[in-house]
C-alpha cells in the first residue's frame, strides 16, 4: 500500500473510531444515570453499561449495513487451523485449540496471586456473587466486544488494508477504547496486546467463536482479581 493511501486510510479509521468512541461514551453515561436513578445494583449497572460498545458499529452502519451481520462476520471458524506464536504468522506453530489451552494455563498461573489476594478477603456469599456476576459479565462483554472488534471492525479493516495492518490497527483501537472506562494507558496497552492475540485467533481460525471463548476466559480471570467490580 502506498504511503499516501495508508495515511488517508489511517485518518478514515481514526475518524470511525472517534465517532464510535464518542457515541459509546454518552450511551454508557446514559445507562449509568438510568441505573443510578432506579437504584440498580452496581454489578448489574456495570454489566448493562457494556452494551454501549455496540455504538462502535454505528459508523459501519453508515458505510454498509450488511457488513455487520454478514456470514463472514458471524462464522464459527476452524479450531484445528494453525496459529503461530508470537507473531500470528511467524513463530512456533500450534492448532488454535492448543493455543487456547496454553493461553488459559499461562493466564491462570500469571494471575493466581492476584486472584488469591482478592478472593481470600471475601466471605462465601460475596465469593458466590462474584462468580455469578463475573460469569454474566464475561458472557455479555465478550460476545459484544468480539462481534464489534473481531467481527465487524477487523473484517472491514482487513478488506481495506490487508490482514497485518488490519490486525495491528484493530488491536490498538480495541485497547484504547478501554480508556473511557477508567483504565490507565498502561492497562489499555496490555488490552491491545490481548486484542492482538484474539484478533490473530479470529484471523487464523476464520471465525469469532475461538476469540469469544478466549475473551470470556480473560474476563472471568479479571473479575476474580477484582478488576471489574471492585
Automatic annotation (TrEMBL):
InterPro entries, per database record: Rce1/LyrA-like_dom
GO molecular function: hydrolase activity
EC category name: hydrolase
Keyword Repressor: no
Keyword tRNA-binding attached: no
EC numbers: 3.4.-.-
Transmembrane segments: 7-27, 47-65, 96-118, 130-148, 160-177, 183-201, 208-229
Protein name: CPBP family intramembrane glutamic endopeptidase
Keywords: Hydrolase, Membrane, Transmembrane, Transmembrane helix
Protein source organism: Paenibacillus illinoisensis
Domain CAAX prenyl protease 2/Lysostaphin resistance protein A-like: from-to ranges: 130-221
